[in-house]
Amino acid sequence: MARHDLEDGKDTEMEEINETARSPTNSTIEKVPVTPATPPAPVADGGVRAWLQVAGSFLVFSNLWGFVFAFGSFQSFYTLDYLPSESASDIAWIGTIGTGLLIFVGILSGPLFDLGYFRSMLIIGGVGETLAMFLLSLCTKYWQILLTQGIMVGLFNGLLYLPGLALVGRSFKKHRSMAMAITTCGAPTGGIIYTLLFQQLIGKLGFAWTVRTMAFFMLGTYAISFPLQLWGASNLGDLASGTKREMFDPTALRDLPFWSYSFANFFIFTGYMVPFIYLGAYGQTELGLTQTQSLNVLIAAQAASIAGRLIAGYTASKVGVMIPWITAAISSGVFCIAWIGIKSENSLIVFACLFGAFSGPLIPLPPAVFPLVCPDPTVFGQRLGMAQAIGSVASLIGAPIAGALLGKGGGRDTYLGLQLFSGLVMIFGGCQLVVLYMLLLRKREVGKLI
Question: 116 is in which domain, residue-wise?
Fold first, then answer.
């Protein structure tokens, strides 16, 4: 066959292929529809829609973290009235398992969010947590309460943890730190609400209907918050990209700033929840306070936590994150040791306010530093998840260890081991933050105001 005949044949084939690609009615295209890949639309910075998402996420956090902060009221009630045969350490496992699962499942659910299932995560999490609360109202034994309030609530809360943070974080650039601070303020706000509900209803309605009232309140807030979060939620951009991310980055194991960050958070969160869980019981058993008076102490701590978070967020925008973070961690530990000298209701309230104000920033500040700990965006998600997993272990074991130290001294020294434990581990975590600060200045070559 002549060469020019081959070339003519190729030209004819190319024309047919081009015609096929151009023709919208071609049978090949009708049989195999192709959706072109388009990059995510740019997200507006703030606006009414974004602040509505902040409001919705605030309500979600008031339930999932607020119920955690209110566990101190349950701790004292279970220990002194409802489950008197169980030790304080065993009862503390109920709260810490819920907290640990909240964080750990939140990490594991990251790939679900990446694949676009954020709506399902919110709905299943909200309905599941509410159902667990109604089941809790029927419980009379330790293992039943551990299963519902500890395991079930923790699992379903874990599904709610990531969507709220991601939706808010994606919606802001300039005011992201303030938006995140407002969102996380839902935690102590919810803690105040649930503690007040417990305080006002437990004597009048009993345990079952007190918990059911909380469940109805929870259901109502979710009915408001989910539409605020999901209505027109097209601003996810590349967060719900449909691409599942890896959950482990082995290179982090060789990175000193990563280990310093993780160890600091581990020790800080080992002691962080101890005062919130045991203050109520301490007031009743050691100072002779009534149940109402002891719960007022918890409310004071949670209210001060709101102020502390907002003040720290503003301060961090002026002087950097590390200085407020170090100050908050070490001061919180010092106040826990000062707790040893508390001998009156007024001094206990002062301690609660100081600890609440200085410990509050320990929640919103760490994520603001992590972009400096891990400046590589390709492994940012994996390393943040690994660091949070380490923190979840601390949240799980801290309060039970402190509870196991109760009563070692007897009499006035019953809480001495608990107070020293919570204070020393937080101070050690704060010292580790100083090491992190120096590592970031040396290895990341950042400015002093970080």
Answer: 46-231
